[in-house]
Amino acid sequence: MSTDPAHEAAPANSPAAQARRRRTFAIISHPDAGKTTLTESLLLAGGAIHLAGQVRARGESRRTRSDWMKIERERGISVSASVMTFEHAGLVFNLLDTPGHEDFSEDTYRTLTAADSAIMVLDAAKGIEPQTLKLFEVCRLRDIPITTFINKMDREALDPFTLLDEVHSKLAMDTAPMYWPAASGQRFAGMLDLCADEFVPFRRLEAGEQGFAGLERQVRGGPNFLAGIGGDVRAELEETAALAREGLPRFDLQAFREGHLTPVYFGSALRRFGVLELLSGLAAHAPPPRAQPALVKANETSIEPGGDDVTGFVFKIQANMDPKHRDRVGFFRVCSGRFQRGMTLRTAAGKALNVHNPLMFMAQEREIANEAFPGDVIGIPSHGGLRVGDSLSESGDVVFRGIPNFAPEILKRVRVRDPLKQKHLRKALEALGEEGVTQVFKPVAGGDLIVGAVGALQFDVLDERIKAEYGLEVIFEISPYQAARWVSAESRADLEGFAEKSKMQMAEDVDNAPVFLGKSAWEIGYMQDKNPKVRFSASKERAA
């Protein structure tokens, strides 16, 4: 038996052992629920940053770390998913921050494919909001366990029983409160740990004070238990906490990981209260990387994190993270194996990719990643060789479940003000279209490109990014089309026959897949009835 220290330490650095140390999670919420502020507080708790920014804080020194695009900083919203890695309590956390605005929901949907769990942030005064519900349904489709954080308890809030009942009724999921709040708003005094029966008092941090509120705990039976809070709040807390213990489910790890139950935490991300408790809950209960369904040589199987073959998939392409270099970076979720810098990975189509400069992220900031393990997200610089949905592995035999593309709800024609720069516009749109945030369609019969988006705000972002990153002035015009559907058929002849008959309304997406552009939703239905051998799909899986 070898006495080489490196050999003896090898098991701790194995894919299986390192996977057990990973927690890869996304944060989902309705806009303005406090998601980005919570992200900042989690990064501060993990030691990844030393000064928490605020979304609406003024001055470059106080910009939030996850919102790095110019438009994000100006408008105080997240429009692109970002990745942040930090360590805490001996674990590695990969935090996937997602856009909250519904106009950028498709980026969020794709990012959720790379997450093993999610934090659902609710505004304590509003409860379940429409976008929250949409994102929850995506999590449910992918069996992603959800931890709930009820934010803004330092403001006037709905009754906690009302909030939990709403989660239960609208999401059809049991709620297991891990803590119980003592009032809300100006009366908010802290929260009771329902498991340890300890009280965590709330204290407003002084201006400029860093660190966290609620670091002290008061043990029941101790001399200071519930000291310093009013008698009415104390009586209310004792009564409601007893009702919560008796009437609400206890936390069950299996039910949580199967998606039937959500543990609930309360706090204030802005006041950095309840964040440490949330992070400890993630460390204790959130699942490590799970087996991923895949095809290996056309056979259905599951890829286990502890496998030796390095595998993973690209869930996002981000263009121009560094505007000086016009770069394109593929966000690659490692699913198995020990990735090492300089490795050669292969797509399912057989294309070899030498990964010389893989990146680890802190939002826009990056550093070279010498190695990565299951659950980690690394950036792979690419000059057009990677697409969203690509599966990569050492063997080239693995294809993971595809990443969804959804039909846009708004279509516009786009042209450049300077006709001599038409080629530059096409190149810019194709690069940004490959990020998957907007859809770009090239009419088969020629003419101006058609851009599709979920919401109007996407066009504003696209306009500003084309101007800032490519120096082009563009004009968006009303399109004659209102709907786009991907078309397919069992027979190649049937598809080609339809495409020829409908040539003036046919286009191709960035993957060169055929798309029918309809003048109305009614026309889509009519064409479907008239061409029963052709499938008109409102979604498409992007997979290699």
Describe the structure.
This protein has 544 residues and is an alpha+beta fold. It folds into three domains: 25-83 and 99-285, Rossmann fold (3-Layer(aba) Sandwich); 292-403, P-loop containing nucleotide triphosphate hydrolases (Rossmann fold, 3-Layer(aba) Sandwich); 407-542, 2-Layer Sandwich (Alpha-Beta Plaits). The chain has an eight-stranded antiparallel beta sheet with strand order 29-26-28-27-31-32-30-33. The protein is globular and about 80 Å long. The model is unreliable at 1-10, 52-68 and 76-80 (pLDDT under 50).
What's the topology here?
Elements lengths: L4 H5 L5 H6 L1 E8 L5 H11 L24 H6 L6 E7 L2 E7 L7 H8 L4 E7 L6 H12 L4 E6 L8 H12 L2 E4 L1 E4 L7 E4 L4 E4 L16 E2 L11 H17 L5 H5 L3 E6 L8 H11 L6 E5 L2 E5 L7 E9 L8 E9 L2 E2 L3 E4 L4 E3 L4 E4 L2 E4 L2 E2 L4 E6 L8 E3 L4 E3 L2 E4 L3 E7 L5 H12 L5 E5 L5 E5 L2 H15 L3 E5 L4 E7 L2 H10 L4 E3 L5 E5 L2 H10 L3 E4 L1 E4 L2
Parallel strand pairs: 1-3, 1-4, 4-5, 5-11, 6-11
Antiparallel strand pairs: 2-3, 7-8, 8-9, 9-10, 12-13, 12-24, 14-15, 14-23, 15-22, 16-21, 17-18, 17-23, 19-20, 25-34, 26-28, 26-29, 27-28, 27-31, 30-32, 30-33, 31-32
